[in-house]
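Now produce a polypeptide, keeping tokens residue-aligned:
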Amino acid sequence: MIISKNILNFLKDLHKNNNREWFNANKTVYNKVRLEYEMFVELLIRRINRFDDDIAALAAKDAIYRIFRDIRFSNDKTPYKTHFGAYIAKGGRTGSYAGYYFHVEPQGSFLAGGIYMPSSDILRAIRTEIYENIEEFKEIINNSDFKKNFNSLWGEKLKSAPRGFPKDFPDIELLKYKHYIVARNLTDEEVQDKDLLENAIGIFKIILPLNRFINNTIKHSQ
């Protein structure tokens, strides 16, 4: 199964017509492309579960984000997201564990993994684990396949050392991250490629050691 051009075309049209009237008039098309995306995510879940048993019993509907935007506190009042996203992790999209993310958006698709916006307690536990097991963590992120696909961790960082950690720690930069995420961009051609599923699984397998490091930390901190 592939991600067809229908999904990208719908999202392009939604970007140009981001209003309730257009969306309601095209609800049938939306339902078709969402089902297509959902079926692909279902395949991803099954394949990921072969090498990461944390993903067992997860349904696609529990991983896929709603297309409706929360506009209550945003200056941007457009009602719909112009992408499809699914977070495949223990507990699904609302869980607190590291996982695998699949994002489809015209000229903006990507694969990602790790943990985004963890709670302060979990973030401190992750930083502590990295601090106490720095060589193990560096072995993960310095792996040749890891560096080839991601180069480095992604996301916001503190300007100074996090509270409670020594400023002279040689790898203090690795403790400054607010998220522990990696991402690999996909072209529209790669999204529609017949080998997308296999390529995505290959990337997610490279992310597995990072997720295991984080998730073992979370499990032991509870």
Observations:
- The first helix runs from residue 5 to 16.
- The longest strand covers residues 109-115.
- Residues 57 and 179 are 26 Å apart (CA to CA).
